[in-house]
Amino acid sequence: MSFNQNKFLTLKPKRMKNTKDTTVLSKAPKKAGVSSSMAKSPFHKLFVDGLKDIYWAEKHLVKELPKMSKGATSEELKSAIDGHLEETKGHVERLESVFETLGLKPQAKKCEAMAGLTKEAAEIMEETESDSMVRDCGIILAAQKVEHYEIATYGCLTEWAKQMGHREAAKLLYSTLEEEKAADQKLTEVAENDINEEGMEE
Questions:
Q1: What does the alpha-carbon distance between residue 127 and residue 150 come to, in Å, rounded to a whole number?
Q2: CATH number at residue 196
Q3: What pLDDT digit, counting tens, does each position of 39-89 carry?
Q4: Considering only CA atoms, which of 24, 167, 23 is closest in space to residue 101?
Q5: In 3D, which of 146, 147, 144, 172 has the Cα closest to residue 157?
Q6: Is residue 111 a contact partner of residue 54, using CB atoms and an 8 Å limit?
Q7: What phi-psi label fits residue 131: left (phi over 0), alpha (psi between -120 and 50 degrees) or beta?
Q8: Distance between CA 201 and CA 137 in Å, rounded?
Q9: What is the value of pTM for the model shown?
Q10: Mind listing the pLDDT tens digit for each residue in 94-106?
């Protein structure tokens, strides 16, 4: 290759604005999805598997959170759970958007961890007296275990999305991560607003 040819290849894009190739690229629509090589990457497959896992978990929580709210005695705790239920419905929709940015159809894979956590919540309610602060303490424990699992999951998925350049997916996942952290903090505040103390005195 001659010196002049090398020089031509290093010209800035603006010097080539009238070429056919540059014009095509500038008008090409930005499509959702990932490259074929990225899709075959073990790391990307792990990421997508994590999305399927938490997608199942969020849809499962939409069914389970009302049971926890119904079992609670404190109106403050009921309100906190009901508020997070509405957020959780939004998390399901947000995950569907994440799949869309990757050019994938939303798909759920059973999350054994979430299934176990909600089963534990049900057992706590069965083993404690209704209309008691002891039960509320147990519900808060179970709910915060759920939140901590979700925080860990969304934290990892957000960082993985950033690493792979999935910027839109990363933003969506980060939004949910922040809401999960806020929900966990709200449960702590509810517990500290006398529920723990009243439970201990029963």
A1: 25
A2: 1.20.1260.10
A3: 789 999 999 999 999 999 999 999 999 999 999 999 999 999 999 999 999
A4: 167
A5: 172
A6: yes
A7: left
A8: 12
A9: 0.82
A10: 999 999 999 999 9
Count of domains for the chain: 1
Domain that holds residue 145: 43-201
Task: Please name the residues in contact with 135: beta carbons below 8 A apart, sequence gap of 6 or more.
Answer: 71, 72, 73, 124, 125, 128, 129
Query: At what angle are helices 112-127 and 133-163 packed, to 10 degrees?
Result: 170
What's the chain's average pLDDT?
Answer: 87
Tokens in use for 91?
């998390």
Per the CB < 8 A criterion, the answer to whether 107 and 96 are in contact is: no
Residue 32: its pLDDT value, please?
A: 58
- Tell me the one-letter amino acid at 96: E
Could you tell me if residue 129 is inside a domain?
yes
